[in-house]
């Protein structure tokens, strides 16, 4: 879910790999249930949910760049790297779900015997793409506009871009304050929701079109352009705020405070994540190659992880455990789901997806068809 341009950046490869584990974890959280009588799934899910803005920022980091070829080649390349994997893995997921009886769990009502058909596949694909794979249809419009976003953002000077970042940051902080006010009715302040509504109508917490996930997509560009010039003090401050707001967002969710979706706090947490990976060093050629391989498989891991979670957690009864034992077993099962997704993606990409992508690229006459990206950026 990001793409490489030129030399690989092992720090961003690591961020993508860790964020993909968080994707698996957030989808596995519902299996944890209550621990010692306390339901901590809401806060835990929000801890892992930072993967969403991180992936959108990574996508913008790599996608908002000057075109290497024609616009036609760019769009056809996106079809090969983003749409083709969806088609391949939806067929694989459908065959898997029909074979193991998971059609309902993965997005289609009815049993395997009545649903296995071309019409059944289309219903299944429609359901899973708009459900478990929601990230892709949300990202696609941004990818289509990325070449034009680059031209518009490049027209801004560095000082103008910094000013824009400051305005967006201030609006995000205002959004956090209004979200906190909107949560006060849960504590007996009945008029707080109306106050929050009035405040947001008078002074919005977003700027068109920089709101929602497109904001994080454009943030990736800003991080790539402005990040290298940031001072050490600014980076330390961004990291500290990112960690505090990351934990704070999860605590607010756990205790029932209202949060916008996506959360305004994610702006700071996402910047902190990018700063953090710059301070983590992957040592050794083997570790570097493994991180790069995992990063390249991230999109396919995403497309297979729902099936992997069903396979792993479908064979484990967490309700028989409680306390630390339950948490540890959940962690092991989540990691096993990630490993299973990694293995499946490594095999399916090598023997199925990449050969198909190469054939499509050659048939469409895309420049550089020998090196087909398997990441969605």
End-to-end distance: 5 Å
Number of helices: 15
Radius of gyration: 22 Å
Largest sheet: 2 strands, antiparallel
Molecular shape: globular
Proportion in β-strands? under 5%
Q: How many strand segments?
A: 2
Helix/sheet category: mainly alpha
Strand adjacency order, main sheet: 1-2
- What share of the residues lie within helices? 55-70%
Low-confidence stretches: 1-6, 110-114
Average pLDDT confidence is 89
Spell the H/E element sequence.
HEEHHHHHHHHHHHHHH
Give an overview in words.
The protein has 377 residues and is mainly α. 70% of the residues lie in helices and 1% in strands. It is built from 15 helices and 2 strands. The protein has helices spanning 10-28, 41-48, 51-63, 71-100, 112-115, 118-130, 135-154, 158-183, 192-202, 213-226, 232-254, 266-277, 285-296, 298-313, 323-364, and strands at residues 34-35, 38-39. The chain has a two-stranded antiparallel ribbon with strand order 1-2. Helix 1 runs antiparallel to helix 2. The protein is globular. Residues 1-6 and 110-114 have low confidence and may be disordered.
Annotation keywords:
377 residues; mainly alpha
Secondary structure: elements and pairs:
Elements lengths: L9 H19 L5 E2 L2 E2 L1 H8 L2 H13 L7 H30 L11 H4 L2 H13 L4 H20 L3 H26 L8 H11 L10 H14 L5 H23 L11 H12 L7 H12 L1 H16 L9 H42 L13
Helix pairs in contact: 1-2, 1-3, 1-13, 1-14, 1-15, 2-11, 3-7, 3-10, 4-6, 4-7, 4-14, 4-15, 7-10, 8-9, 11-12, 14-15
């Amino acid at each position: 879910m990001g793409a490489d341009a030129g030399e690989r950046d092992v720090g961003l490869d690591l961020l993508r790999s860790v964020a993909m584990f968080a994707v698996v974890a957030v989808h596995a959280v519902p299996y944890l249930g209550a621990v010692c009588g306390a339901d901590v799934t809401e806060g835990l899910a929000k801890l892992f949910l930072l993967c969403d803005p991180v992936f959108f920022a990574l996508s913008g980091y790599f996608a908002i760049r000057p075109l290497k070829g024609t616009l036609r080649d760019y769009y056809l390349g996106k079809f090969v790297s983003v749409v083709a994997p969806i088609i391949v893995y939806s067929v694989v997921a459908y065959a898997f779900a029909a074979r193991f009886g998971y059609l309902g769990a993965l997005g289609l009502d009815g049993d395997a015997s009545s649903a296995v058909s071309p019409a059944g596949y289309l219903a299944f694909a429609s359901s899973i793409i708009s459900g478990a794979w929601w990230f892709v249809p949300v990202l696609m419009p941004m990818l289509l506009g990325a070449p034009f976003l680059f031209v518009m953002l490049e027209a801004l000077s560095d000082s103008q871009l910094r000013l824009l970042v400051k305005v967006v940051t201030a609006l995000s902080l205002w959004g956090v304050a209004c979200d906190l006010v909107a949560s006060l009715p849960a504590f007996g302040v009945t008029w707080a929701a109306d106050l929050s509504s009035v405040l947001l109508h008078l002074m919005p917490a977003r700027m068109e079109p920089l709101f929602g996930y497109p904001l994080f997509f454009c943030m990736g560009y800003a991080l790539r352009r402005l990040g290298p010039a940031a001072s050490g003090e600014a980076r330390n401050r961004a990291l500290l705020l990112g960690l505090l707001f990351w934990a704070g967002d999860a605590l607010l969710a756990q205790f029932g405070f209202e949060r916008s979706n996506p959360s305004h706090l994610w702006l700071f947490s996402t910047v902190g994540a990018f700063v953090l990976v710059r301070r983590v060093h992957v040592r050794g050629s083997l570790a570097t190659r493994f991180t790069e391989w995992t990063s390249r498989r991230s999109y396919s891991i995403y497309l297979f992880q729902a099936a992997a979670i069903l396979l792993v957690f479908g064979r484990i009864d967490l309700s028989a455990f409680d306390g630390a034992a339950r948490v540890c077993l959940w962690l092991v099962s989540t990691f096993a789901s990630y490993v299973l997704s990694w293995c499946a993606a490594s095999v399916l990409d090598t023997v199925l997806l990449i050969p198909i992508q190469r054939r499509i690229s050659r048939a469409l006459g895309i420049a550089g068809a020998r090196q087909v990206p398997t990441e969605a950026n």
